[in-house]
Amino acid sequence: MKVVKVGIIGLGRLGKEHAKNLAFHVPHCELYAACSVVEAELDFAR
User: Fold this and answer.
1) InterPro entries, per this entry (predicted)?
2) In whole angstroms, what is the distance from residue 27 CA to residue 37 CA?
């Protein structure tokens, strides 16, 4: 099965939860990109 690559815009409270769920709980899904204006939120995504 192909992997679906997903990007998230905004890593605030809900964005972080979505990122964790996509990265660790959704089969065949890869958290490929994330963007935020807050540097600490980007560190979280790395």
Assistant:
1) NAD(P)-bd_dom_sf
2) 29
Give the C-alpha separation, 26 to 35, whole Å: 20
Torsion sign over Cα 14, 43, 40, 5: negative
Output the pTM of the full model. 0.69
Give, for 5, the enclosing helix (H) or strand (E). strand 4-9
pLDDT digits (tens, 9 = 90+) for 11-45: 888 988 998 898 899 999 998 998 989 888 888 77
Are the CB atoms for 21 and 37 separated by under 8 Å?
A: no
